[in-house]
Design goal:
The protein has about 575 residues and is an alpha/beta fold. The protein has a single domain, classed as FAD/NAD(P)-binding domain (3-Layer(bba) Sandwich). β10 and β11 form a beta hairpin. α1 packs parallel to α12 and α6 packs across α12. The protein is globular, with a radius of gyration of 23 Å.
Length: about 575
Amino acid sequence: MVKTLDKVDVVTVGVGWLGGIIGAECAKAGMKVVGIERGKERSTADYLRVHDEYRYAIRYELMQDLSKETITFRNSRKMRALPMRQMGSFLLGEGLGGSGTHWNGHTWRFLPYDFNIKTLTDEKYGKDKLSADYLLQDWGITYDELEPYFDKFEKTAGISGEDKNPFAGKRANGFPTPPMVKTPILKKFEKATSDLGYTPFMLPSANLSESYKNPDGQTIAACQYCGFCERFGCEYGAKTSPEITVIPTALKTGNYEVRFHANVVEVMKEGNKTTGVRYIDTQSGEEFFQPADVVVLTSYVMNNAKLLMVSGIGEMYDPETGKGTLGKNYAYQVLPGATGFFDEQMNVFMGAGSLGMTIDDLNGDNYDHSELDFIHGASMSITQTGVRPIQSNPVPADTPAWGPEFKKASIHNYSRTLSVGGQGASMPHKENFLSLDPDYKDVYGVPLLQLTYNFTEQDRKLHKYLTEKAATIMKEMGAKTVMAGNPISDYDIVPYQTTHNTGGTIMGASPENSVVNNFLQHWEVENLFVVGAGNFPHNGGYNPTGTVGALAYRAAEGIIKYSKAEGSLV
């Protein structure tokens, strides 16, 4: 029997960055908010012994339990999709803070070009630059319109950086805190890229260079450069995360509550409105209905799309006809790069998740694509994140895979190896999409999400071009041996690549080509908001978190406006 609870103003599904931002802004506005989180409660105190590579990086302590819920995957519609049984290509977070707990902290603003990519590409290169199989479209919002929300997210997170990127969109304010320490490794990259005619700058970082108090009164500590960021929580409270910023801000209002071990399985709807959500207490097995005036899906890309699908909200995308928007425009990234082996030893074991330098000369449309058979590019970076010994055994290509020669080469090269890599933007393709699996279900009896995805010719050509650029940079840095990345063929769900999945619940200017408007309000269900990287019509050359954070602040503004005068916001 389902137990009905007292109605609230707003319920969020997921309590990471997005649920925390929505919760804090709405609670500060006097609204009663419940955040529903299927994982457990946790805080900085839980990470006092976090420097355990095996527990966190190999056995995925902070990640989703795939024995209870996973996704199925196939490269094409002709293949049978099979369940992902262990973490591989991307890492799905679970628990308070979500992926905002175990992230590295790279905090970018997508380029102005990204938001109007269809219009700008057509104007400069013609409408046939990419074939009609690529579903390129504008976002329904411009960079300038989103800039105040970027600014707000960066001030909340205290982002450390420097305003030296000549290709970035205009900023109303500088970074809240100075850039991180420029190490000898980063200086090596800086000199090489400068000599090659590029413009290097320090990577925008949520590992703070100094202690900082944000506008909500939350204090974030200074980074200790311990090298345990990605896949780990921060025991210093120095890697900005939802647990030390927006969630405490929401809680101190007295208008906010978090329910843990609560898995939402359905968004309830009557007519063109949602009435609330149905969830299962994963410890007791009890079912509850949480009524709300506004429902906000703030979980990960995959789960937001899945919840809409199982709830029958929106028209599913059909790759055969091109009709429907739900599940459309799933995009990932490619990772061009090169590894260099040096004579001198370097302190690679130290670092931070976002300690790095970048060039944007090869990102977006910052270089001419007239004679190239692809569009977009990548931010090209060197990062000093802290090389951990279990996962990192770099050896030259001609080294045996095991035995005494491997051991000798591994020990010798551990502190003598650097890599330059890019996050290659991925363009949406009609055959890459999300849907519901017809055969497999999760432990709660709900169909699994099915991912149909493969790299395209656009991806392969972009990857090849940028890999050659990365090898040139590495050679200029003085490596005695340079190993360029292998060409990509078919996408595989292992090994790890990035947790930068986008699309499926895309935003746009009309319901004909998008799921939500530019306040992330659902076109068909007016009191339902869907927030996350699933809103991106294509993927970019950066980590998505900064742009997701900006969209969340805009959505929060929209929710508050909607609560005062119901109806569409556009």
